[in-house]
Write a structure and sequence with these properties.
Strand order of the largest sheet: 3-2-1-4-6-5
Oligomer: single chain
Distance between the termini: 79 Å
Shape: elongated
Length: about 450
């Protein structure tokens, strides 16, 4: 087995003499096997090795036993060890995660923290062929992209998986032949976890009733799908250069060139764009691509929520993707200035400047915001209170679609007070009854889609 793992490590250039390696060691068969395989590779390649154990605070005495065993093994093998103690249950509750998800995040954070402190170049995890098959089946059942169906990558940045080429039986056989003991996590048999159900029920059923080598075939297929995914990602990247326009607050998927793509590439472009908006590929599945695709058939202004605190909105040009944590809209530019002051005694005229406007502050009902357009925005267009949707105003003014999303608005909720560079809302005009005045000044630039001058 060792020779196969060594060849696998060499094929994917996982380790070299110059590397500093962090190894995640839980005490179970997989991670103990990883530790001893790495020790053998260390003798040949000469890299540095540090072990990390994460105590999740979930299993009481059993978890304490695992920690003690890992400490003992690392001491015997003269491997530096760092132990992290984390309250996974509290972590999960605080972030709205399952304990399974929280455990993965906590471990990842611990590995990265140790790697940063020690200047590590690689983080080795003990996932094997069965884990890879579980991942593929999990993603297949949940709905996933081509990339998700390619399973666990051998190498992803600093993360490496040296044991992906062997299965659980081979790992146990390796440990047995060498007389190496390991801990057993009793929660691996609990069927309340999705992956445990795949591991304990689905996989045995496939191996017993379909093909004894089912896991091997699934892993091999995942490898081929990974190569296909890499090719498709390159093609989708080329398509995004034509179909996607970068904006200050996100990206706009342009409908016209997008619809000219094949159905397959359209979905891959959508997937990549959603991932970029979310800032992660985790939890992005086929269902989200379908939601975004369906949004193109909806009216302007309709929105959907996406993983990673991201969202998408139907706009005139196609779809706008954004991060809700950024306020769902672009930040207010620094060129805007506001001040409130009492109406001057003897005031006769009102400044007639294109980019400085006065408003009756006393009738404003909400906090004034500077933003771009949203569904439901409207203006009051005459002294009788007649209303007009902002969309219709843009159409009447023959303002190009590609410009509309970039025009700044001063708004009182969804009541547009000022279309910057164009017109001011009739309802907010200064009258003889005005006591306090709000002045908004736009000091120049092209942020509204037009050149502006502050001294007009």
């Amino acid at each position: 087995m060792y020779q196969r793992v060594k060849a696998y490590v060499e094929a994917y250039h996982m380790l070299g003499k110059e590397d500093r390696v962090i190894a995640g060691i839980s005490g179970g068969a997989d991670s103990i096997c990883l530790l001893f395989v790495l020790l053998e590779l260390k003798k040949e390649l000469g890299f540095d090795l540090v072990a990390v154990h994460v105590h999740h605070g979930l299993r009481g005495a059993s978890a304490d036993r695992d920690e003690a065993y890992v400490r003992q093994v690392c001491k015997e093998q003269r491997v530096p060890l760092e132990v992290f103690r984390r309250d996974v249950r509290a972590y999960a509750k605080e972030r709205g995660l399952t304990e399974e998800e929280a455990g993965r995040e906590v471990r990842r954070e611990a590995f990265l923290e140790c790697a940063a402190r020690r200047g590590a170049t690689r983080i080795a995890l003990a996932h094997h062929r069965n884990d890879n098959a579980e991942t593929v089946l999990f993603h297949l059942c949940r709905g996933s992209s081509l990339e998700g169906l390619s399973g666990i990558p051998p190498v992803s940045g600093c993360w490496i998986h040296p044991l992906l080429c062997v299965d659980r039986r081979e790992i146990e056989s390796y440990l047995e032949k060498r007389g190496i003991s390991y801990c057993t996590d009793e929660t691996n048999r609990e069927m309340c976890y999705t992956r445990n159900r795949i591991r304990g029920r689905v996989i045995p059923c496939l191996e017993e009733n379909v093909n004894p080598r089912a896991m091997e075939h699934i892993a091999d297929t995942a490898q081929r799908l990974r190569l296909a995914a890499e090719f498709v990602r390159e093609e989708a990247g080329k398509c995004r250069q034509v179909c996607v326009r970068q904006e200050k607050d996100g990206e706009i998927l342009l409908e016209e060139p997008f619809r000219k793509l094949s159905l397959f590439l359209r979905r891959e472009v959508l997937y990549e764009t959603i991932c970029r908006a979310a800032g992660t590929r985790r939890d992005i599945g086929a269902v989200h691509v379908s939601l975004a695709e369906g949004l193109l058939e909806k009216q302007v202004g309709r929105r959907i929520d996406l993983p990673g605190d991201a969202g998408a909105e139907r706009c005139y040009e196609g779809l706008r993707f954004f991060r809700k944590s950024q306020g769902d809209l672009p930040e207010v530019p620094g060129e805007f200035k506001m001040r409130v002051f009492d109406r001057p005694e003897g005031m006769e005229g009102i400044p007639q400047k294109t980019y400085t406007k006065w408003f009756d502050y006393d009738i404003i009902k909400n906090t004034v915001k500077i933003r771009h357009r949203q569904a439901g925005d409207y203006l009051t267009i005459n002294s009788q209170g007649g209303r007009q949707k902002l969309k219709q105003y843009f159409i009447n003014e023959k303002i190009p679609r590609e410009t509309r999303d970039r025009i700044w608005l001063a708004v009182d909720a969804d009541h547009v007070m000022w279309v910057v560079g164009y017109r001011q809302n009739q309802a907010y005009q200064i009258t003889d009854k005005t006591r306090r005045i709000l002045e908004i000044e736009f000091c120049g630039g092209k942020s509204d889609g037009r050149d502006s001058e502050s001294n007009d």
